[in-house]
Amino acid sequence: MLKISIITITYNSAQTIEATLQSLLMQDYKNVELIIIDGKSTDGTLSIVEKYRDHIAQVVSEKDDGLYFALNKGISLCTGDIIGILHSDDVYYNAQVLTNVAYAFTNNNTAEALYGDLIFVDRNNLSKIKRVWRSGAYKPDAFKWGWMPPHPTFFVKTQVYKKYGVFNTQLRYAADYELMLRFIHVRKIKIIYLPQIMVRMRLGGISNFSINNKLIANKEDHKAWQLNGIKPNVFTLLLKPLSKLNQYLLRHI
Questions:
Q1: Rounded CA gap, 103 and 216, in Å?
Q2: Whole-prediction pTM value?
Q3: Domain count of the chain?
């Protein structure tokens, strides 16, 4: 039975962390290792985490240099066969998400990673859909046309991190993009697409950025290609943000 490690990064997440933890505990797949990496929260985050301590493998609370440093710390602590990430303001869509992940890996022995779909929801109303991210099946060179999978749905075999590295902390806003670009486009790992909604992501939280930060992230997207010694198409970095327009249209379908 595959063991799934889930990393949750927290920092002053008292308003949302309980819903995140509850969505994990409601999963009907039970061979799960939960690792909490906290950036030394000063609100009630750790008090809430402590309520669920019996269900958490490890809790680390100390100052760090940001999200990707924390994620790398979490990866180093994982003992599972597969690693997933659930941010402290996101929740799994239903109780079968991790069962479906484990089933897909078990029935596709050569698969090294998988991803699915995601919905963006109102920060205070998880039932209010703002955007729908339908990833679609991966096609070779899809990254050159602005494609990328939603990172919160990206589950990766632990051996892939050991073989190809972790998050590049030279990037502060686009390290998740760089990592998926490196794994999928450059290293050509074998991936599976699950055509189902896996995560509800709150808008306006730890996993979303301000407009200014999005502009910086767009510049970092270009650097992600440079770091891998490859060149995007002329319109790649324009098509990437434009692809999000379709997500607003899909919410009405």
A1: 38
A2: 0.92
A3: 1
